[in-house]
Specification:
oxidoreductase; SDR family oxidoreductase; Rossmann fold; SDR_fam; globular; Sc_DH/Rdtase_CS; 7-stranded parallel sheet; alpha/beta; NAD(P)-bd_dom_sf; 14 helices
Length: about 400
């Protein structure tokens, strides 16, 4: 099934505004998504820790034409998430769409991340997604309808340096999503779950994530505005039958490149992955840290949806335009074909470095080559099957 359920579509056609719950709604992608749904007149439950940011998001939702319900909650608390879900449904009505966007991270080499910090990132980013999905399913199962959208990342496939806790958590979300999706299919459930793999996005995370980097943290270009990500989430919510969506050329290049030449990307990232995640400017000494307490909570400020990189961020994605249309034509074959086709269409000359690297690897893997036994692209090799993806 490639779209929302017939009952859900009928409700919306009858003029009943959709009810949407969004975690991580106080800033970034979650907030932009809330505003985008509000543009459709949706009733939106805004879940996050930061009350100042939540109130700012609620104002924007109302200004966009939606109804907002602010529910401060830490998604790492399973019981609190369940109570928030029940409140959302009691006050707004049956939940049609649930979007999981909450996360936290630490910018630092793995050796500089404490066990407590790693646990906290995992509890928020991975277990928070699990707990919220459990709450959503508890609401949706009696009606046998609804859509759950997991906000993922290209880093759910490819680990990068300086973000080991976040990459590990997003990999876990990816595996969880796949398992749940198959179980729902086996049940013949009317509930759909999908995942949207994001590129680098200009969100406030680079201004409030705990960082031990000497320079200001930054997303690796190409960078997209949160509204691009939000439109991808809306499309996924409307068409949750596809297992996942890729957003932007950056995500497509990362996922496809990792599938073809993961070991080449390992070496590339070992040379570039540290500097590319930092600006030339020193990290501000007074930068807030939202790992344990929200930077947009009491005593903090409203950071909004956008981060520091408006001058670099793209406001549209050609890859998305193609992916949505190619997807409609290839649904019978599978979503991977649609995403891969869309990614390959837009890569053009930007893919040449990866293609060149692939040719180099093939050449070095020829019979008699000293490096052939360690080739990452050899079928069945340990490095190709066990490599961190995208």
């Amino acid at each position: 099934m490639a779209s929302v359920s017939s009952d859900q579509s009928a409700d919306q056609a009858a003029g009943n505004p959709p009810v949407v719950v969004i975690t991580g709604a106080s800033a970034g992608i979650g907030r932009a998504t809330a505003v985008a749904f509000a543009g459709r007149g949706a009733k939106v439950a805004l879940l996050a820790r930061g009350e100042v940011g939540l109130e700012g998001a609620a104002r924007e939702v109302r200004e966009a034409g939606g109804e907002a319900l602010v529910i401060p909650v830490d998604v790492a608390d399973a019981e609190a998430v369940q109570r928030a879900a029940e409140r959302a449904e009691t006050e707004l009505g049956p939940v049609d769409v649930w979007v999981n966007s909450a996360f936290t991270s630490v910018f630092a080499p793995f050796s500089e991340v404490s066990a407590e910090e790693f646990r906290r990132v995992t509890e928020v980013t991975y277990l928070g997604t699990v707990y919220a999905t459990q709450a959503a399913l508890k609401l949706m199962r009696p009606r046998d309808r609804g859509a759950i959208v997991q906000v993922g990342s290209a880093l759910a496939y490819r680990g990068i340096p300086l973000q080991s806790a976040y990459c590990g958590a997003k990999h876990a979300v990816q595996g969880f999503h796949e398992s749940l999706r198959i179980e729902l299919m086996n049940e013949g459930s009317g509930i759909r779950t999908t995942m949207v793999q994001m590129p680098a996005v200009n969100t406030p995370q680079f201004s409030w994530v705990l960082s031990r980097l000497p320079k200001q943290a930054q997303p690796v270009p190409p960078i997209y505005q949160p509204e691009v990500a939000a439109q991808a989430v809306l499309y996924a919510a409307d068409h949750p039958g596809r297992r996942e969506y890729w957003v932007g050329t950056g995500a497509a290049k990362t996922i496809l490149g990792n599938a073809l030449v993961p070991a080449v990307l390992d070496k590339y990232l070992s040379r570039t992955g540290f500097s590319s995640q930092q600006t030339p400017d020193p990290r501000p000494a007074d930068q807030p840290q939202n790992l344990w307490e929200p930077a947009d909570g009491p005593g903090g400020r409203d950071f909004g949806s956008h981060g520091l990189f408006d001058d670099q961020a793209r406001t549209s994605s050609k890859q998305q335009w193609v992916a949505h249309r190619v997807g409609a034509l290839t649904s019978a074959v599978g979503p991977a074909v649609a995403s891969a086709g869309a990614g390959l269409i837009v890569l053009t000359d930007k893919a040449k470095p990866v293609v060149g690297a692939l040719k180099s690897r093939i050449g070095s893997s020829a019979p008699g080559s000293a490096s052939s036994s360690g080739s990452a692209s050899s079928p069945g090799s340990a490095s190709s099957s066990d490599s961190a993806q995208s």
